[in-house]
Design a protein that fits this description.
Length: 356
């Protein structure tokens, strides 16, 4: 098969980690008989420098015309003092909106070889963990009515949480379908003891669950979920939740894996096109030093194969090569223990290529 992939390398370490992921995709393409065509587009600080805006129209058109988009990271101190509407981060929000991406998938997994990097006690993670956070991305309090007004105690501000049945149903379907490809368990996180939107969330998730009798569903209040993630992370398979709860819990889940340099993400909409990117930023402090860990971006490319191109075997091949490299002791600086030999970004890419 042939696939057109838009590359948005961005700023800082973005270009080197995306280039690494491209070589991995090319190797997998050779092995399984696929051709990937890559076209690069500007977004973020480099786009501001070249065109004056963080998200040029040709980037949006190119991404819309592609089968899927692989993104590095945007931003850096050079652009930090620009006004809000021409900041590099605007490119991300703009791309998500233009591509209609309402689902964010973030796996968080503890690699046995890196258990020592996990900030939780060894006995808490003795079973390891491997969870998938499914976060609603375009609704809820981040997009609701907001403003300032005179209130009971003088000037006040307000933000409004609103969810429609349609928005909850579509994200619930994503979560239940994902659970079918994993361990058939969904935990739906809400605050139904207080919030009316959460009561609608809960009702709707359970109604959707009836269509997935092979998947178990359990409700969990968000405060309890925050505790359970650090108490017994192995109990989670798929977590589905709102935009704000997902924002907070996905950062908590990533932190307990021990390295943000390892974690991929996918943002999806109704079709098969998605936006795949590492969860970390452009790491300006190490840009140009070769110290970037390319694994999060390489695993994002694997997610693209699985979720956008329906190539699970090819995705698993990349994931297995990453596992093997880590098991064999290959380490970039961010995941090294004292005394470990350290690979640079290109060295880690090569170590993964050698294991495909
Ligand atoms: P960051 O994720 O870029 O870096 C945090 C720390 O983690 C740094 O010490 C960095 O060196 C390290 N790190 C991150 N990725 C790494 C990797 N792959 N390998 C090794 N070490 C890695 O977060 P930050 O410093 O808060 O933000 C830097 C810039 O990135 C800012 O301009 C911010 O706005 C932007 N940012 C962009 C995105 C995105 O494009 N999606 C996300 C977050 C932050």
């Amino acid at each position: 098969m042939e696939y057109n992939i838009a590359l948005v390398k961005g700023d800082g370490i973005g270009p080197e980690i995306v280039d690494g992921a491209v070589t991995v995709l090319e190797k997998v393409g050779e092995k399984f008989g696929h051709t990937f065509h890559f076209t690069s587009y500007l977004a973020g600080g480099c786009a501001i420098d070249a065109t004056g805006v963080p998200l040029p129209p040709e980037t949006v058109e190119g991404c819309l015309a592609s089968d899927s988009v692989l993104l590095g990271a945007v931003g850096g101190p050079k652009w930090d003092t620009l006004p809000g509407d021409i900041r590099p981060e605007k490119a991300l929000l703009g791309l998500r909106a233009k591509l209609g991406l309402y689902t964010n998938l973030r796996p968080a997994r503890l690699y046995p070889a890196l258990a020592g990097k996990c900030p939780l006690r060894a006995e808490t993670v003795a079973e390891g963990f491997d969870l998938l956070m499914v976060r609603e991305l375009t609704g809820g309090i981040y997009f609701g009515d907001r403003g300032r007004r005179d209130g009971k105690y003088g000037p006040e501000a307000y933000d409004t949480e609103a969810y429609s049945v349609m928005e909850i149903e579509r994200i619930a379907h994503v979560a239940f379908s994902a659970a079918r490809k994993r361990n058939h368990k969904v935990i739906s996180v809400d605050k139904a003891n207080v919030l009316e939107t959460s009561r609608l969330w809960r009702e709707t998730v359970h109604r959707v669950a009836e269509q997935y009798p092979d998947v178990t569903v359990q409700d969990m209040l968000v405060d309890n979920a925050a505790m359970q993630l650090v108490r017994w992370p192995a109990q989670f398979d798929v977590i589905v939740t709102t935009n704000m709860f997902g924002d907070i819990l996905s950062d908590e889940a990533s932190q307990i894996t021990g390295s943000i340099g390892l974690l991929p993400s996918a943002s999806l909409g109704d079709g098969t096109r998605g936006l795949y990117e590492p969860i970390h930023g452009s790491a300006p402090d190490i840009a140009g030093t070769g110290k970037a860990n390319p694994i999060a971006t390489i695993l994002s490319a694997a997610m693209m194969l699985r979720y956008s191109f329906d190539l699970p075997e090819e995705a698993a091949c990349i994931e297995a090569a990453v596992d093997k490299a880590l098991d064999d002791g290959c380490r970039t600086a961010d995941i090294a223990a004292p005394g470990d030999g350290i690979l640079n970004c290109a060295g880690m890419v090569q170590a993964i290529l050698d294991r495909i």
